[in-house]
Amino acid sequence: MLDLRTAGTRTLKVLMSAPFIGRTPRAVEDTRHQTAEAFSASVQFPICEDTDEDRTRREMIEAGQFYARQDRWDDLAELIRSHDAARSATASGMAISRLLSYGARADVVQPVEAALSDPGLMAAHAPKGGLAALEEVLEDEPEDYGLALVVAEAHVDIGWAWRGQGWNAEIPERNWQAFQDHFARAADILDAFDPFEHNSPALAALRCALLVADRVPQDRVADDYEDLIDLDPANPRHLRSLGYHLLPRWFGTYDRLEAEAARTAERQSDIWGPDGAYTWVYLDALSVDPGALEQLDVVRFERGMRDILAERPDQHSANQFAAWCAVSLSDGRFHNVAQKAKVQALARAFDWILEDHLREIHPMLWGMAAHAPQEMPGSLPDLAREGRTQALLRLGRYFEKDLKRGGRLMASDAGVWIEPQGV
To answer: Please, which pLDDT band fits residue 169 given cuts at 50, 70 and 90?
Structure first.
């Protein structure tokens, strides 16, 4: 097997010279794709095009949509509640209850989103009957929190569609008012249900989602997320979302992000090890805002990656962190930061992740790593294609000297190795 522990300079050379990720000219994308395809014959990593994560997301969304279209609301609500009680989730922490909810409201939300996102369509043409029909379903069963989740989350989705992704000052007054109205209605629905009384992380997660419309979210963000994490302590998605919302652009500061990351790590040491939760809290915050490097303890962050991969030694986790180190950190935003030494130290973690953990490629995760968490462009097939390109490029360039001699990069459950030419 390969000994990659001394390959740090190779990692930095590959990652720091890689083309910027994100939106790139089509000619650059084509060249990058051609280079990756040239490596594909020599990089013999198994590529898992349809992971358990992908299948579960797709199947649960389709199930929610099916029950809604069949007007089987009681069955759907029971399914949402049972999965919520069981804390059922995908490998990434996406709650099954919320996937079912998304499928159930998709026929209502998606036409509105399409109408509001297309400048050629008048917002007034967006269908309104669907949301009223959902409200009627809730009126028939006002004490069913499974149904309440579907309706409240539909209001949140439509509120975001009206608001868009710009800064507050850029939002037209009409759109801003619609955003506030939909979030206010979601809050009214949610006020009838206590997350702890119903033992429901889904309700607590929705309460956190409503912080963006709160007048003083800074006063609530830590407490609301602490409630959510207490209800669903083994789910990393909540930790990542906490860190993201503690950025200065949302409800926090870099100092507060560091303090909450350290505090959460101590609270969750029995689940993620001494430093795992510290890493989870910082992960998305760093992906969005390189300024978060200012307070980051790099040594602790790397120890946290090791803790997480020790607790969850699966290929989803290995791909997530390998892609973050190899792709996310090669974004142009990280090339000129004052904390460049921290970026380089984080990038070097790719060495041991590759040697000790990575055994197959999950293209979707590599594609997602090429974009900030709040910016997932294009279709899922396009994202997977981009991810396959990113993975082959990074692995091909990392082992380029060996591959040029005719070797082939191989991987199996036993490890990673270069197979010499002619073997």
So the answer is: low
- State the DSSP code for 121: S
Hey, what are 218's tokens? 């800074």
pTM of the model: 0.89
Measured over the CA atoms of residue 205, residue 211, residue 213 and residue 214, the dihedral's sign is: positive
Task: Say how many CA atoms lie within 13 Å of 217 toward its Cβ.
Answer: 20
Q: Are 4 and 352 in contact (CB under 8 A)?
A: yes
pLDDT at 265: 98
Helix (H, G, I), strand (E, B) or coil at 413: coil
Residue with tokens 């051609």: 34
The per-residue pLDDT for 6 is 39
Nearest to 301, CA basis, from 327, 322, 282, 325: 282
The answer to whether the beta carbons of residues 148 and 102 sit under 8 Å apart is: no
Which of 308, 318, 323 lies closest to 383 in space, CA to CA?
323
Query: Do 109 and 160 contact (CB within 8 A), yes or no?
Result: no
